[in-house]
User: Fold this.
Amino acid sequence: MARVQVVILAAGKGTRMRSAQPKVLQLLAGKPLLHHVLHTAQQVADQEPVHLVVGHGAELLQASLGSVPGLVFHYQEPQRGTGDALRCALPGLAKEGRVLVLYGDVPLLQAQTLQAFLQHVPDDCVGLCSGELPDPSGYGRILRQEDGTVAGIQEERDCSPREREIREVNLGILVLPANRLENWLGALAPNNSQGEYYLTDLVSLAAQDGIKTIAYRLADPREALGVNDAEQLSQAERLLQARQIRTLQQAGLRCADPARVDLRGSLEFGPDCYLEPNVILEGRIELGARVRIGAGAILRDACIGNDVEILPYSLLEGCKIDHGARIGPFARIRPGSEIGANAHVGNFVETKKLRLGAGSKANHLSYLGDAEIGAQVNIGAGVITCNYDGVEKHKTEIGDGVFVGSDTQLVAPVRVGAGATIGAGSTITRDVPAGGLTLSRSPQKSIPHWHGPRQANKG
Ligand code: UD1
Ligand code: CA
Assistant:
């Protein structure tokens, strides 16, 4: 097979999306559309650079691609159609081998499909991917001669009513002999309803030159779904989520309902993990063995040890949870938190930059921020680390085996020695010695025969 140079067209505005963001930067499974296409393109391009045609929002696109190596950018300004876009990349392309053109808004395409397509089309022919979609609207229709040869592509807006009935559509993937491009692209004319230079017109130009076009029918044309508007974006999202969860299930992940798990990043997991409905996993997620994640839990960049149980509606971000720990329900674990083995963090507890030792428990209604808490510590209900003085954050350190009574405020910076007990309702402003009982409480008073003001007035 001849050398393949890959070009991705991504200069369009994406008017139909009605978004302030360039279309190819819309997120699909947490990643811009363009990044999905690029990932596939790089697998096909092998060691060759990938050519990207950018225009609308070019700076944003380039910023989003940051340090991705092996990219060559071409600029299209103004954007006068897909044919014009490819022409902008011409100066950077060698005139040998083939050029594979991909659209930045066709994100579900897989490398093995493209490989099979490239194998199928002889080097000196034009090739395109086609398919029959239940709803072909918006796609170019494939025109064939009596004998079945592909004669051209007609964009929907330019279709006659009869052509519009054609169900076989152009899925937007084209491979062309590189040495013909300059001639064909130079011959394009914007004589269509949009006044644009259509890449798809190359097919009829090729036919005029006696070059055959091979239409490769995709087994599942949904793989080449084009994302032009919000509805198609959500369709692509569901298709991709279904594909991801299928792969995860094949690898042994169990879940109550595969349609109600969303993965927007990468997931690694050990044996016998189980996800209840409506779990959202974002960023980089690692699960050990036998992790159970309850309904509605959201995890973002989290590393979860063996036998951890995350109870419903908890939000965990940028954290590490050691084996056997139990989190939630309704817990909020914020970045920089490390929850020790077999520790419990219960309902309505918020943690931030917390190191909680093994076997420690904070079961109810607490804020624990910028704190280092030892092993086997009991944090009572309503305990608050007052870490912020309005200007700076301060640290709370609590030794092993401490018992912090309910509704205690620890005004940081403050240290509590190992084995100390702090009486409920205390406001701790100075370091607490190890062992013994420390409490700060105004003495309790009882006033007998006391009547409230209203009762007094009534006599
Ligand atoms: C295109 C095809 C259509 C096909 C469909 C498949 C053409 C003329 N039509 O239509 O036959 O069925 O895709 O999804 O090619 N772009 C540029 N510069 C431009 C215009 C577009 O780089 O001047 C880029 C866009 O950013 C986008 C891609 O080319 O990534 C496709 O453009 P779009 O306007 O979405 O084409 P469709 O109308 O979907
Ligand atoms: Ca499109």
Summary: The chain is about 20% helix and 30% strand. Residues 9-12, 24, 53, 76, 79-82, 84-85, 103-106, 139-140, 153, 155, 169-172, 198-200, 226, 228 surround uridine-diphosphate-N-acetylglucosamine (ligand 1) (CB under 6 Å). The chain has two domains: 4-224, 230-438.
